[in-house]
Amino acid sequence: MEMMFVKEQNIKYGNTLLEKSFSFSVRIVKFYKFQAQKNNVVLSLINQLLRSGTSIGANVSEAQCSISKKEFISKLQIALKEAKETEYWIKLFKESGDISNAEFESLNNDCEELLKLLVSILKTLKSNNS
User: Fold this and answer.
1) Is 28 inside any structural domain?
2) Which pLDDT value is given to residue 36?
3) What is the spatial distance between Cα 64 and Cα 76, in angstroms, rounded to a whole number?
4) Domain range for 106
5) How many structural domains compose the chain?
6) CA-based angle 70:89:42, to the nearest 5?
7) What is d(CA 64, CA 72) in angstroms, rounded to the nearest whole number?
8) Could you report the per-residue pLDDT of 56-105, keeping only the tens digit for each?
9) Which of 6, 72, 108, 112 has its CA 20 to 30 A from that of 35?
10) pTM for the structure as a whole
11) What are all long-range contacts of 67-75, with beta carbons under 8 Å and residues at least 24 apart?
């Protein structure tokens, strides 16, 4: 099985969540391009991964321009939901044999890191809100 590893340079925004979510989006786009060329990948599934995986960073980026704390929290909650969906698709591709264990570990570890960051930030924001 052909493998592809994508490790992006760190983009510096001065915001860890922005940097990591953007780098993850780039990885997902490159992973999509690579997987879409293979005949054994179901295109509609890889499209779902592309949509949810890039939506994480888009929502984190959009949250930066929120006009209220409530809107900021809402955008980060959407990013969290998209990260959970992305985690699902990554696991599905692994279990269906469409990606190697090494590819899975690499993508899944990055996704889990984003999930942990988002959960931590949201817990802090919500506890400061009460």
Assistant:
1) no
2) 84
3) 10
4) 16-23+42-129
5) 1
6) 135
7) 7
8) 999 999 999 999 999 999 999 999 999 999 999 999 999 998 888 999 99
9) 112
10) 0.86
11) 69/125, 69/129, 72/125, 73/122, 73/125, 73/126, 73/129
